[in-house]
Each structure stands twice: as structure tokens, then as C-alpha cells.
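Ligand-bound model needed. pyridoxal-5'-phosphate.
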Amino acid sequence: MNLFDVYPLYDVTPVKGSDVWVYDKNETQYLDLYGGHAVISIGHSHPEYVTKVSTQLQHLGFYSNAVQNPLQQTLAKKLGELSNCNNYQLFLCNSGAEANENALKLASFKTGKSRVIAFKNGFHGRTSAAVAATDNQAIIAPINKQQEVTLINLNDQQTLEKELAKGDVCAVIIEFIQGVGGLDEASTDFYQSLYTLCKKYQTLLIADEVQSGFGRTGDFFAFQKYGITPDIISVAKGMGNGFPVGGILIHPDIIPKYGMLGTTFGGNHLACSATLAVLEVMQKEQLMDNAKKISSYFMEKVSEIPQVKKIKGRGLMLGLEFDFEVAELRKKMIYEKHIFTGGSSNKKLIRILPPLTVQKKHIDQFIQALKDLLK
Ligand SMILES: Cc1ncc(COP(=O)(O)O)c(C=O)c1O
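Prediction:
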């Protein structure tokens, strides 16, 4: 059987990982400044992560959500403490798209409404409601077009209020820092008005923290910089350090009902132990502080490179914008310098999404490689 060929692949075959490094089948070492697409949070094969997940596997890998699973409570408590979202409720699923799908569905249940407002250049995943809220026509199939979604520009407060005032909007979904779109952010004023307007028009605010969450920006969640409390927060990616797990944090005003949401695999024993290991390591190794520290160092070093026209993002969710398309540069980074970076829908932007354990010496290696390739 052939694979369904939907991914344009680089010719690299990683077989092993350790902290910020991955190794291919020829033992060539690569510096991972892409984190497998913002997924590797505590470093590849962190020893405490490996021990916790493998110990759990030796005891019980999976049982369904029909029976007690105390690991879910332990996880909810720990996540509440570390994220400072103690009063929220946790629903666990398996991916970022699924988290957003559940978030949108819950907003519709809660408000009895169905239209969604999302933002141009945003990305929320590929399931039905999530993909309809994603601004990329190429990935929206005719079957997804049944969803009612209005896409507006970041910072366009006037259109936002005009649309909300129609009274039929169940949710506004937003990435506080756009990931795939290329690291754009709205103004503080816009984010705060968004929060106030959602309250005014009984619309739920969904913070898509799938990429920016779990400490990547140096805060646990990107929205926390603005002092607001979204109704639903979606998480995935860094949450499991590579184990497929996602979830939504749900404001206490939203009351659960049996059957409202559900999943076979979500919140299974292995997913919970992977996520618990991530949280424990993040706390022990103070990885959010490290994200802030290395981010400042990165910005300082990159500002010395004149070809970089703009540095975007926060913490270890960063973008470097050039005045030329970066595909060739990224290829050379991999094949000549053995450094993984990320692309985005902005063809002139390189994304930097390393494990939160990255150190100054790794940044130096990247800066030197960039200088060499730009000569
Ligand atoms: C902000 C954001 N939301 C949702 C998703 C979808 O996540 P997944 O690929 O796990 O379904 C992504 C993935 O890149 C993302 O960046």
C-alpha cells in the first residue's frame, strides 16, 4: 500500500532525539529549532518523561472514560496550579483541531447560537468547525462550508462590534499570537475590547493556545499578558511533548451535562502521564523563565543581522522576517548547517520554535549559521 501523499517532505529521517538534538539514520546530528512544529516542549526523550510514560505503560496504557481515572484529576490540579487557571474545568482530547472543535461546539451549546467569528490568517486545525474557522480556502472542503464563519482582520474593532451586535455569534476564536499565519498579534487595546465586547453580546471567547500555550511564550498562556479570562482555552502541541494529547480549559460558568462532549482515547493513562511529566519538568527546570531569558538573548543577537527586517513573536515562539522568500535558506539550514527551522504562510518568514530547554550556545550556533548563509 502507498502512503496518501499529502506532505512535501525534506529528505531527512530522524531516528533518535535527545533534548534539542535529533539524529538521522546516519548519526548526523541536527539542532531542532522547530520542535517538531512547536510540539517538543521539555526536550526530546527527556529522561523523566521517558521514565514516567514507560512506567505507566507497564501498569496500564489505556482504559476508557467509562471508569475512574485518577490521573485525570491529578493532571487537572497540576495544570490549574501551573497555568494559574485553577477555577477552570478540564476536558481532555487528542489533538489541537479536536480541542478547537470541542471548544466551538461547547460555545454553541452554551449560547444556543451557531455563527463563529475568526481572524484572517488564523489557523485552528482541520476538523469540521475548526477548519471552517481557518483562513485557508485550500483546506476547506465543500462539506465544511455548512459552518457559518465570518473572518475579520486583527485590530478591526469596528467590524468586530458590528458582527457581534447581530446577536447570532456563539464564539470568537483567536490565536493571541498567530502561529502558522506568521506570528502576527493584535494590539493590547484590541484584545481587551474583544474581551469586553464578547461579554456585552453574550458570545464566548475561545483562546486557541494550541501552539502558544504550555509556556512557549514565557507565560503559561499568551493571553495572560492582557489580564483577561477567556471562556475556553484550547491546548495541545507542547502539552504531551510528542504524545498526542489535547484539551480545553472551560470557565466555571459553563455547566457540564453528561454526554455533552466525549471521546474514546482522550485523557487516557499514557496521555495523562506524558502531560504530567511535561508539567513537572517545566516546573522543576523553570522552563518558562528559560523561555524568557533565551528569547531576550535571541532578539539581541538577531538584531545584529541587517538582512533580518523584523523579529516577531514572544518567548520561544519567534519569527524572522526577510525581504526575500526563505524556502532556499531553510533548505540550506537543514542540509548544510543541520538546523531545523519552521516555515509559515508568510513565505518571507522563518519560524523558531525550539524546545523550551534551548540554551544560549544553541542560539549562537544558529546565528553563526545564519550569518554564513547570508554572506
Ligand atoms: C494555533 C493552532 N491551532 C490548532 C492547530 C491544530 O492542531 P492539530 O494539528 O494538533 O490538530 C494548530 C496546528 O498547527 C495550531 O497551530
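The two ends are 45 Å apart (CA to CA).
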